[in-house]
């Protein structure tokens, strides 16, 4: 499966279910262009995962909502919850590790931790 171009209109629906990797990028960005083939190859190798791309030039509002200040930035969502966000291009072995980590997450534990954090009084 190829990567999917994401827009503000379809972003929330796309990341709402399953495992979704999102690459925030721009055409003028050298590291983005270097990371693109690695991301595309992962999309082919893992058809059960959605690999989305957000062009930060075309989708400035979406980039601003996620406070993207450095590109490429890779985010991982699982069942609508952001579980990873990090700027910088990854090599294929690093991306493969991240993919396996996303698959192995215990989402019940993640939800419990989020609930506990949200229950803490603001300091």
UniProtKB/TrEMBL annotation:
One of its GO terms (molecular function) is protein-disulfide reductase activity. Keywords: Disulfide bond, Electron transport, Redox-active center, Transport. InterPro entries: Thioredoxin, Thioredoxin-like_sf, Thioredoxin_CS, Thioredoxin_domain. It comes from the Bacteria. Residues 1-104 form the Thioredoxin domain. SUPFAM superfamilies: Thioredoxin-like (SSF52833). Coiled coil: none annotated. Pfam families: Thioredoxin. GO terms for cellular component: cytosol. Belongs to the thioredoxin family. NCBIfam families: thioredoxin. This is Thioredoxin. The lineage of its organism: Bacteria, Bacillati, Actinomycetota, Actinomycetes, Micrococcales.
């Amino acid at each position: 499966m190829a990567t999917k171009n994401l827009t503000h209109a379809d972003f929330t629906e796309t990341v709402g279910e399953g495992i979704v990797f999102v690459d925030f990028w721009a055409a003028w960005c050298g590291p983005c262009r270097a990371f693109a083939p690695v991301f595309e190859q992962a999309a082919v190798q893992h058809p059960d995962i959605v690999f989305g791309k957000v062009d930060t030039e075309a989708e400035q509002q979406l980039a601003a909502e996620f406070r993207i200040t450095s590109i490429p930035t890779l985010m991982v969502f699982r069942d609508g919850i952001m579980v990873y966000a990090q700027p910088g291009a990854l090599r294929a072995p690093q991306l493969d590790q991240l993919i396996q980590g996303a698959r192995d997450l215990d989402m019940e534990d993640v939800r419990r931790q989020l609930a506990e954090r949200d229950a803490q009084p603001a300091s």
